């Protein structure tokens, strides 16, 4: 686990945390920015991923039930 906190390359916020090593490669530490709610890899290319793209939407059972009727 990296010792120093890196600023987010997108919003320059220091409110970031280390998540894991991408592909178990210690040269690609994966971080999460709490300010802009996005993941980024140190040394990787910046991709335009929308906010919250990694999260799954919770299923609303009542809407699903009405669709079946």
From TrEMBL:
Its main location: nucleus. GO terms for cellular component: nucleus. Residues 50-69 are annotated as: Disordered. It is found in: Nucleus. Residues 6-60 form the Dof-type domain. Keywords: DNA-binding, Metal-binding, Nucleus, Transcription, Transcription regulation, Zinc, Zinc-finger. GO terms for molecular function: DNA binding; DNA-binding transcription factor activity; zinc ion binding. The keyword Zinc applies. InterPro entries: Dof (IPR045174), Znf_Dof (IPR003851). Residues 54-69 have a biased composition (Basic residues). This is Dof-type zinc finger protein. It comes from Eleusine coracana.
